[in-house]
Amino acid sequence: MKRKSIYMMIASFVTAAVVFAACTKEMSDVRLNAKLTTTEKMNVTSDSATVVGFIVSEGQGITEKGICYSTDSLPTVDDNKAVYSGNENTAAFTVKIGGLDYATKYYARAYGVTASGTIYGEQLTFTTLPVVPTVTTADFTATSGTSATGGGSITNNGGAAVTARGVCYSTQHNPTISNDKTTDGDGMGDFTSSLSGLSGKTTYYVRAYATNSAGTAYGNEVEFTTPEALVTLYAAGDFQGWDPAAATDSIMNDQANSIVRGFVYISNTNGFKFTSQRNWDGPNYGAGATAGTLSTDANAGNLNVPEAGYYYFELNLADMTYTATKTTWGVIGTATADAWNSDQPMTYSPLLKRWFATIPMTAGEYKFRANSSWDVMNLGAGAAADTLSSDPSAGNLTLSTAGTYSVMLNLSQPLVYTYALTTWSIIGSSTPGGDWSTDIDLTPGANNTWSVTANLTAGEFKFRANHGWDYNLGGTPSALSWGGANITVPADGNYTITLDLVNGTYTLTAN
What we know:
The chain is elongated, with a radius of gyration of 42 Å. It contains one helix and 44 strands. Helices cover 2% and strands 48% of the residues. The protein is mostly beta strands. Strands 25, 26, 27, 28, 29, 30, 31, 32, 33 and 34 form a ten-stranded antiparallel β-sheet that branches.
């Protein structure tokens, strides 16, 4: 009887064990308890795990077996359970648990239901894998024919650190990181992307991306179309000899879209065209079939203006239309003689390609404006020193030191407008010191002239503004130029020197 009792005790002993093995090192070949005689690996994914249990002894008889699991320690069948549905007589059983949360630590135990209650194996843990991040793509805007800005946002890292983010883009749908892409840091949140090197008048497709250990996710696709790429046009016509190669003063270029803007001084009404090269090889833009339109036909007629003057052009190359507005320029503000009531007129110098006004000014504020109106164009403080902005909201320019200045306005470089307040002097080997170290100041006069009577020695000199070399003039008496050749003084003597800024000339008269 004693031996039989021992056998019955052994037969009635039932145990359960679970082996969990993940793809990670710490989950490999772990035994559920000391009575486990078989080890199986389990496959852990982001939402599932495969778990193996082994019953050493049936004992009182198991009516149900499986795996119970929870995010809390020591799970029971009252938490979550996955029931084994295979061969009832097998000791080893494999259960796949599904519907799990990603990147989450779980506790699991094998269980068996008997007539006397539920028995459990030893507890083990596993952590589900992360998923790819959640990312959205922001709208993109073309900032020029070759560039655009936009970005994206990462709202969920998928349970693992975001190690790379940015946007990928292509001229085909559904771009990936194997296409062109930006790299815009890492981590969660919003980010900004800048695209460059694009082609003009081209549609691009963009998707934000984010990468973590689970892989790369993509946001929604957005698209944008770049405008006409950078365009430079040259005004060639009777006023300059019909020579595009000599039209460097007539350059026009775009403002990052199909509207080409700029100023051109046209001295007669005998016609002109815009060329895309410094030759006639085309395309060239002449008069269209109706007023205000353009044509690239080789037989297109010439464009024209009703009178000579300084014109502001806008050419829309998308719909082939244009406008031409004649402008005169002035200075207005509290720094000028009539405050904000009326303009101090400026005069254009075709030779020096500047507008000039030699006027007394006081400490205060001022702006430049066209046609004595705020409706055509006005220029205020630009982003950089000595630059101007055509944005109507641009701030006023300021003057802190009163004096008489030749105010210079330079509109010859399209969309990069500059100005300077200048006083003038001469310097050179003919001036005192004889070593280009001492200026002789000129006195402002009428009609944008500056003059001085001084003793000079045989040698050379130049005109310069503000005792510096940013603006200096040299050349012949009838044709000064910026940075031009030194001016010769033939002999020692007393001379009267007069600089005429508007006409771009000077006189050197011996007394």
